[in-house]
Give the backbone structure.
Amino acid sequence: IATPCHLHKEMAVAAIQAGKHVYCEKPLAITPEDNRAVVDAASKSKRVFQVGHNRRYSRQTAEVVRRLHAGEIGKLLFARGQYYTAQDLPHHQTWKFRRDQFGDMIVEQAVHNFDMFNWIFQGPPVRAAGLGGTNLFVNDPPGRTIMDHYTISYEYPGGAHVNFSHLYYAIGDLAEVGEMVLGSDGAVVMGRRGITFYDRKKRGPVSTVEPIKGEDSSYNSVSHFFECI
């Protein structure tokens, strides 16, 4: 299922009830009620159901999470993430500018980043607070109901905090997507320029996690779906 987000719940539930295995692109749905309906339908089925969180199937990213959970940077204290692009969404894809169809940028796009934080901290946050709106692309395109920026803070069990910001009007090299995690003994930075570990007691990087040549995490996720079937 790779349709506009507001159709995911209806299609996923119908496919499950028809006895089909289902690979549903993220987000699962755009309201809590619709998400619960899909989860309930999948839980009652004996078929394979998978959500398109393709970062879970990157062996490079999985290695980073393994090292974090093994305590390489100590107790995980804080994380920062950003999703900055230098242009707005494609205007010809009109459904992406309707919150009731898109779920807004925080749901349709940043779900990958939030899934990453939940993976790192091994569960969902306990508190959240955020601010956002539209301050550059006002009514552009006409009828726009989605934001063009926001920032959010999460608190995880044990007191770890996450700060995440997301916007569509970065300039040039300021466009960046990635995360940084700080621990009691070190840190890791993950971004388009690579993945680097740091030690609190040493200057400069101490190690990197190299990409696996030719690997495609989206391909891996679909391959896993077929393996499960």
Observations:
- The CA atoms of residues 126 and 157 lie 6 Å apart.
- Helices lie at 8-17, 32-44, 59-69, 99-102, 105-108, 111-120, 217-228.
- The longest strand covers residues 76-84.
